[in-house]
Amino acid sequence: MANYILTLKEARDVAVGTRLFVFDKPEGYVFKAGQYVAMMVSKREGIEPDARGFARSLSIASAPCEPELYFAMRQGESTFKRTFWQLAVGDTVTVTKPVGFFVLPPEEDTRPIVFLAGGIGITPVRSILKQAEYEKSNRDLILFYSNRFLEDAAFDEEIRNIALEKFRLVTVLSKSKDACDLGNDERGYICEPLLKKYLGNNIMNCLYYIVGSPQFSSAMEKILIDLGVPKEQRHMDPFTGLRAVDQK
Ligand SMILES: Cc1cc2nc3c(=O)[nH]c(=O)nc-3n(C[C@H](O)[C@H](O)[C@H](O)COP(=O)(O)OP(=O)(O)OC[C@H]3O[C@@H](n4cnc5c(N)ncnc54)[C@H](O)[C@@H]3O)c2cc1C
After folding, report:
1. Measured from the CB, is residue 213 less than 6 Å from ligand 1?
2. Which residue of 24, 48, 75, 90 is 20 to 30 Å from 11, comparing CA positions?
3. Which residue from 52, 103, 217 has its CB within 8 A of the most atoms of ligand 1, so it is best to mutate?
4. Residue to probe by mutation, ligand 1, list 14, 31, 57, 248, most atoms within 8 Å of CB
5. How does pLDDT run across 90-144, given as a tens digit for each residue?
6. 3-state SS of the chain?
């Protein structure tokens, strides 16, 4: 599989303990919104290699219409994460070509799209929403975005400002007790009554896109299975290797 060298342009925090890494997009690097890559970093002086090595799967957080490649990650203690957090502008990493099927069907499929995103699982959803905005999509799009606190929610403001008439954001905060005036602001976990509240009679007719830690993904899948939503309407992108935040 052909690999590509990416050069870091910028790194900045986009939520508590969460960093966005912006890379130059190589000429001819074509991907679909929602896809991911295998990302490789080089061994670095002073960082002892661990058993998990130097490569991870990472979703592309930018949209195909955007000029750069974005990747966002929660901070961690692994060799891979510590190496990433030490990268300086101008340093390089290696990625494979994009892969994965967490992509929207053609616009002719008019079923409402429901994203169930947990934490850093927002990365492929950001890509899909920014591309939909660019294409002035007429789809019904609704995102249930689950975090512990609002400050954990990467890209929150940007997503709140997505300029699409038929896009709705439901902010779901599991640990926050603060009052915040965000419109669709929910507390606790994503659950069946919450989906019913926002999806109403459409609930069985939607296409569901689940993304987050394996624990989050299984919990969301169970809700949909219990509801009787057919497998064909459930798309999963479990971030294998990602620990659920509540298990910290
Ligand atoms: C398709 C896909 C897309 C993804 N996209 C993103 C993304 O956009 N952003 C993102 O942050 N992550 C993403 N991930 C997850 C990512 O690949 C990493 O697994 C995750 O970020 C954790 O990396 P880490 O280096 O911090 O921890 P890791 O070293 O990968 O460890 C993860 C967990 O496993 C435990 N662990 C590690 N090694 C062992 C072991 N030998 N035995 C038992 N337990 C062990 C650790 O304690 C930790 O809890 C994606 C994963 C997939 C599959």
Report:
1. no
2. 48
3. 52
4. 57
5. 999 999 999 999 999 999 999 999 999 999 999 999 999 999 999 999 999 999 9
6. CCEEEEEEEEEEEEECCEEEEEEECCCCCCCCCCCEEEEECCCCCCCCCCCCCCEEEEECCCCCCCCEEEEEEECCCCHHHHHHHHCCCCCEEEEECCECCCCCCCCCCCCCEEEEEEHHHHHHHHHHHHHHHHCCCCCCEEEEEEECCHHHCCCHHHHHCCCCCCEEEEEEECCCCCCCCCCCEEECCCCHHHHHHHHHHHHHHCEEEEEECHHHHHHHHHHHHHHCCCHHHEEEEECCCCCCHHHC
